[in-house]
Structures
1.
Amino acid sequence: MTTPLYKTLNTGYHMPQMGLGVYLMAPGQETYEAVRTALHLGYRHIDTAHAYQNEASVGQAIADSGLNREEIFITTKLWPTEYGEQESQTAIDKMLNRLQTDYIDLLLLHQSIGDYIGAYKGMEAAVKTGKVRSIGLSNFEDERLDEVLTKADIKPAALQVEAHPYFPQDDLAAHIAPYGTVLESWYPLGHGDPALLNEAVVLKIAERLNKTPAQVILRWHLQKGYIVFPKTTNPVHMAENFNIFDITLTAEDMAAIATLNSGKRYFTMSMADREKNFMAYVPAD
Ligand SMILES: NC(=O)c1ccc[n+]([C@@H]2O[C@H](COP(=O)([O-])OP(=O)(O)OC[C@H]3O[C@@H](n4cnc5c(N)ncnc54)[C@H](OP(=O)(O)O)[C@@H]3O)[C@@H](O)[C@H]2O)c1
C-alpha cells in the first residue's frame, strides 16, 4: 500500500482524504472497537457528529490508541438545536469534553435549518480561540449555502453532502471551488446499496485492477478530489476500504463511472420535513 493522500484545506491544515465515518455505530463498544481498529489499520481521520451520540466513544478510542493527537483528524458536527452564536460556543465546549481533546480539526453545521448564521458566527469565534481549526457545512445546497459563502468571514473549508456515482455533485463541487471549499461525500458507497456495488461498469474496472467494487468507487471519489469516509464495523471491509492508494483509475475509467450519473439520491426528505423532524430531535449532552 502506498501513502494515503492528504488535502490541504483553505485554512492551511492537512486533512487525510480518506477516513472512517461512524454514523449509525452504537455508542460504547461498537464505536470504540471500530475506531481502535481503524487507527490500527492506518486511518487517521474520523467523521462523527453530536447527533450520532458516539463522540465520547470516538474520544476514548483515540485517547487509548497511544497516537499523538496531532496525527489524527477529527470532524464533528453541531446539531440545529444547539445553533445560535452563544449556544454553539457552549455546545463546542461540551464537544471538546466528550472527545477528550482541546481542539476540533473540522467542525460542521450538520443541517441548513434553524439559526445557522448565528451558529456559524459561534464557530468563527471558536476558531479565533483555537478550539476549532477549520469550519464548514453539511447539507447546505440551496441559497443558504450562498448566504454563508458570501457572508462568512472565514469561508467554509468543507461542504459535506450526499455524493456517489449515481449523484456525483459535479456542479456543486465547481460552485464551491472558488472559495477553496472541498466537497466531502456522504453515502459514498450509496449506503452499501448492492445495486451500486454490482454495476457492470464498476465490476469490469474492479476485475481489471484486481480490486473490489467498493475500492473502485472509493478511488473514484479520491480522484474527483472529494473527501471520503465510508462507514463499516467489519474489519475486512475496513482494511479493504483503506487499500486504495496503489491504483489509479484512467480517464476512461472515470468517464465510464460518470455514465452512472442518474440523478438518484437516497436521502429525499423535503426542507419542510427537515425543519420539523430535525428540530424535534435533541441529542443528549
Ligand atoms: N452529514 C450528513 O448528514 C451525513 C449523512 C450520512 C452519512 N454521513 C457520514 O458519511 C459516512 C458514510 O456514510 P454511510 O455510512 O451512511 O454510507 P456508506 O459509507 O456509503 O455505506 C455504508 C454501508 O456500506 C457497507 N460497506 C462498507 N464498506 C464496504 C465494502 N468494502 N464492501 C461492501 N460493503 C461495504 C457497510 O456495511 P458493513 O458495515 O457490513 O461493512 C454499510 O452498510 C457516515 O458514517 C457519516 O460519517 C454524513
2.
Amino acid sequence: MGKVPYIKFAKNCVTDLMDTQNELESIYPIHEYENWFYNQATGLLTFSTGDDELNFKYVNVGSFSKKFNTWKWSWDNEHTLSKVKDDILHVKEFGEKHGYEKLTGGYFASSEHEAWEFTAITAKLMKGIGAYRPTSEHLLIFMVLTEFVDNETAKDIKDLYVECDKHEYRRRAFVCSHLMAREEVGFEEAFDTYENMELYDDDYQAWCNECEKIRRREDGWNKKSMEFADIRVVCEKCYFEMKEINLGYK
Ligand SMILES: [Zn+2]
Ligand SMILES: [Zn+2]
C-alpha cells in the first residue's frame, strides 16, 4: 500500500463524512428535535421533543477549546468515561501505524477545522453513521454516532443505570440492606467482580455473611431469605466501596 499523505487522507475522510451525514439526516431529522442529551455512562446520545425520542450510540472523539484553540483527544481526557472513549484508541493505533502525528498526540494547538478532520477520520475508521458537535461552555465536543438504537432498546439500556448522590450516573448494583451500613459484615457475590467489567446480561449482586447463612439454610433465595436480605439498589462505585470495606474479612 502506498503512503497517503495525512492532508489528503484527512480531506477524503471529510468528504466521506459529508455524504454519511447527509444520509443520516435524510433518515433521522436530528436538528428538528428541541433537546439533546448525552450520557457517558450509557453511551447514548438522545434527541427529544416532549416524549418523542431518538437515540444513538456514540463515541466521544475529543474536544476543541475555543478559548485556548487546543484539541484534546478523548483518550487523553481523564474526565471522559471509558465507555465512550476506549474505541478511539484504534484511531491512535492507526495513526502510529501510518506515522500520522496528529492522531497520536493527546493535546495540542489546533483549529476547529482540524477538529472536524479528526472527527471525519474517526467516523471513517469506526464506520460511523454520522457526527454531532454539542457545545459545553467554551468547549466544542465532537462525537461520532455509531448506531441507531430503537426506543425499547434505549429504555432497556437506561434502566441498567442509576443516579447516585455521590457518584452521579452509574451502572446499577444490588446489595443486601446490611451492606448499606458500610461496615464489615462480609461480602458474598453472585460472581467475581472487578470495576468497569463488561457485564452483558448480569448485574452486580452482593450480600453479607448473615444473609449467606440464611440463604444456605433456606437452600437458596426464596421469600424468607429475600425478605431478610431486603435488597437495595446502589451505584457501581458504591458497590465497590462496600466491597473494599469488606475485603479480607472472614
Ligand atoms: Zn445482609
Ligand atoms: Zn454511588
